[in-house]
């Protein structure tokens, strides 16, 4: 199976590359941007095109959201012309106001923000005009490398002694980019082998948590590991922010359908964070063990 992934350098795409490297049945082609012409798509002849999520669409300039939407629209046109399956990953922030209960896949986001509504309109066009599609709504992605990796930025800031500010009253399910990559490849292999389970799916980590609690846990675990390495590092602190004074905003995705259709289980974010922190410490310790650190 050959996959074309767009927006090279995104943390999800780097995770997809790691998954493909471990498998003999998956080949990747990578394009730098979102724009793809139909003729180029015919030349590459992928089994599917994957667009990674725009991270934090509520927190960036509206022009960037509009630009992303235009790229997705152009990709949709090329996929329709060539009848190429399209996978569009989107942020849970499209559920701008959240829900009191876990959000099912059939619930289409209805944000108030105009630029976010443009993305919803694109999703409507995908559903109505391109049957072989996956719209995969994700919790906040974290990874150690690549664009929009989140965790790497938190670690770097803490190690540099900088204070990290995080919302205490927004509840979501952090999601490992590695776990998403493994799930997407598995889903696409099943679809490539005859499954007809196209449509919208939710994929997120287990255990709803606030950004503040998540970041605080990262700090605690990082401190424990650095002390285990015999390092004395004065880590920055984590400062709580409050955006919703009446009650927390909950943005928790119900991921039951992806389990029923593809057998994909959610990965506990605590275990994934622990694994990545172990990897980070191993990389930090490596030069010392090789005798190359003075």
UniProtKB/TrEMBL annotation:
<dbReference type="InterPro" id="IPR029903">
    <property type="entry name" value="RmlD-like-bd"/>
</dbReference>
<dbReference type="InterPro" id="IPR036291">
    <property type="entry name" value="NAD(P)-bd_dom_sf"/>
</dbReference>
<dbReference type="Pfam" id="PF04321">
    <property type="entry name" value="RmlD_sub_bind"/>
</dbReference>
<feature type="domain" description="RmlD-like substrate binding">
    <location>
        <begin position="70"/>
        <end position="279"/>
    </location>
</feature>
<protein>
    <submittedName>
        <fullName>dTDP-4-dehydrorhamnose reductase</fullName>
    </submittedName>
</protein>
